[in-house]
Amino acid sequence: MMPPAYVRLDLDAVRHNLEQVKRYAPDNKIMAVIKANAYGHGMDRVAAALEQADGFAVARVDEGARLRQAGFEQPITVLQGFVCADELQQLLKYRLAAVIHAPQQIAILQQQPDRAIKLAVWLKLDTGMNRLGFKAHDFAAAYQALLACAAVEQPINLITHFANADDLLDDKTRRQIDLFNDAVKDYPGQRSIANSAGIIGWPSVRSGAAQDRGGDWVRPGLMLYGCSPFAGKTGADFGLKPAMSLHSRLIAVKDLAVGESVGYSGTWTCRSATRLGVVSIGYGDGYHRATRSGAPVLVNGRRVPLIGRVSMDMITVDLNDLPDAQPGDPVTLWGNGLPVEEIARHADTIPYTLLCGITQRVQVM
Ligand SMILES: *Cc1c(COP(=O)(O)O)cnc(C)c1O
Question: Active site: which residues (predicted)?
């Protein structure tokens, strides 16, 4: 028997999506971004499926340490670097590369003695995201300070991050690229700029790949999981396949009369006699509470509309077009045939939050 709510993970789709990244960025090396438990898909299984990637990126030191403990030997970059000397020791112990984005990190590195195994670093330029990174006017000094650190591996690699690459009409991305290329032009290290939106939408960040540096690195996250980083599109528009599908089942079917209202706060009122289905999934599983009435749900593979509020453990759907549906019938909340991008639109959010939001009680199959 299937569990009440479960995720089906399609690792062939993950591998297919990696091939698509290579199609978009044939001259680049690929740092597969598997932070946040591989966007909710399960870090270990996704990392194993991505053995053709050149390396991994995670957000935090503990995520990188877990990957090493699980036996992965590829280069692993920690995108937030470290915040204290203890975390730096963890990075060294597990041979994790660190993004260096702030002066206090360099101050900690300056206290480190020379050592056999040095810390691989990505020095981050803030080109306009205004989150992590050195501003252009501090960048050369940070570079020189790092060069003088005995515990730092040479060459120093160079990284920045896009703020608006999902908006193809915003020339901020162009300015970020130019600012980065100008700041790093005299340095020998490898470069890394592009997230998924950059890889698909901004080809010029790839054409700069320098073969004499072994090819620069792209950092795909979302597209590996089969989703579009661009609003109004789905992964299929870019040759991607969804890696996750979320499933449950009907647990009750009942008939309601005109004028009856459904669920907490009675946000839905029946305008005609309504056959109502109750599905065993809710925000306690990661089905977003903000999802509005009208969002599509697949019952027996057919689309029906969500009606009423999302509860912790249940949602309700209108089965008028599916009068034969019965308790026990299979339900798909997103995945094959129902893009998570579409559900995100109905919840006023982005696919990232839905994928990352899957909770512990959902069994992964
Ligand atoms: C999360 C992240 C990525 C991946 O972004 P996607 O939009 O999922 O492709 C790349 N680089 C950095 C610095 C990130 O934090």
Answer: 35 (proton acceptor), 264 (proton acceptor)
Single-letter code of the amino acid located at 277 = G
Residue 312, annotated ligand binder? yes
- What would the two tokens of residue 64 be? 């990188």
Distance, CA of 246 to CA of 201 (rounded, Å): 28
Q: Where are the alpha helices (DSSP H) in 191-327?
A: 196-201, 204-207
- Percentage of the chain with pLDDT > 90? 93
Is the pLDDT assigned to residue 209 strictly greater than 60?
A: no
Q: Is 120 in the pocket of ligand 1 (CB under 6 A)?
A: no
Q: Which amino acid is at 131?
A: R
Output the pLDDT for position 3. Answer: 86
Residue 211 has pLDDT above 90, yes or no: no
Domains of the chain plus CATH, in order, are 11-227 (3.20.20.10), 244-364 (2.40.37.10)
**Catalytic pick among 24, 29, 35, 352:** 35
Q: What is the pLDDT of residue 213?
A: 54
| Assigned token pair, 255 | 């008939």
Give the pairing type, strands 191-192 and 157-159: parallel
Closest atom of ligand 1 relative to the 223 alpha carbon: 9
Contacts of 102 by beta carbon, 8 Å cutoff, 6+ apart? 81, 132, 134
47, 178, 350 from 30: Cα distances, Å: 13, 22, 24
Nearest atom, ligand 1, residue 79 CA: 13
pLDDT at 203: 81
